[in-house]
Amino acid sequence: MVNVANGRVFSPSFAKLVLYVIAVDGMLAEAPFPLREFYLAPGNRIDLDIIISKAFAGKSLSVQNLYGRKKSALAFLQVAAEEAVETPGFDSPRARQFPRWADAIKLPVEHEYILNAKRGGVYGISWAIDNKTWPDNATHELTSGQFYRLRFTNKSSRLHPMHLHGQFFKVIAKNGRAVQENFWRDTVLIGPKQSIDIGLIPLDKGLWLNHCHILEHAEAGMMTVINVN
Asked: Which CATH architecture has domain 1-96?
């Protein structure tokens, strides 16, 4: 599933089907995990392992969006009425190696990105990182192969799905409390007045955009550059 919406967040639910997420943002998870309250922000992708039992043969299944005040239909799946195909047993793909980074929360924050809004600009509002808008904000210098703890702090009342080009990271803390996600990301949703800490080991050298994936926010200034050298 790919969220190609410009500003909507989805929390997909497949009725009574049992689904497992096997990859997030194109990277295999440490192990498949059940699809429960996964917020698919603009730019996010998930790969799913689905088995439809014989009981659903000939039936129509509704895929619901549970994000927000009211649930809404995303799609309908029509299950063929023919006899189900016997699926041979096999293990779902998973990452061969996956870091735990249990002590990462004890390391200092290398840089805190402050996300906020300012009046003015071409659109009447400017979306800023560290109180500056693109291209006037500073380039953040990182060294390839070195671990960094970075923080996004959302001072605004809007959602900001922050997307880092060319790299993958793990969420290691939310609002200062350690979390252990068993998958990589390149996009993470930052809620209003929320802070998210990520662990990152940049590998691919070069200049990489770091921006909000609500493209009106990016166009209004919420972009910066990371230089990996």
From this structure: Sandwich (2.60)
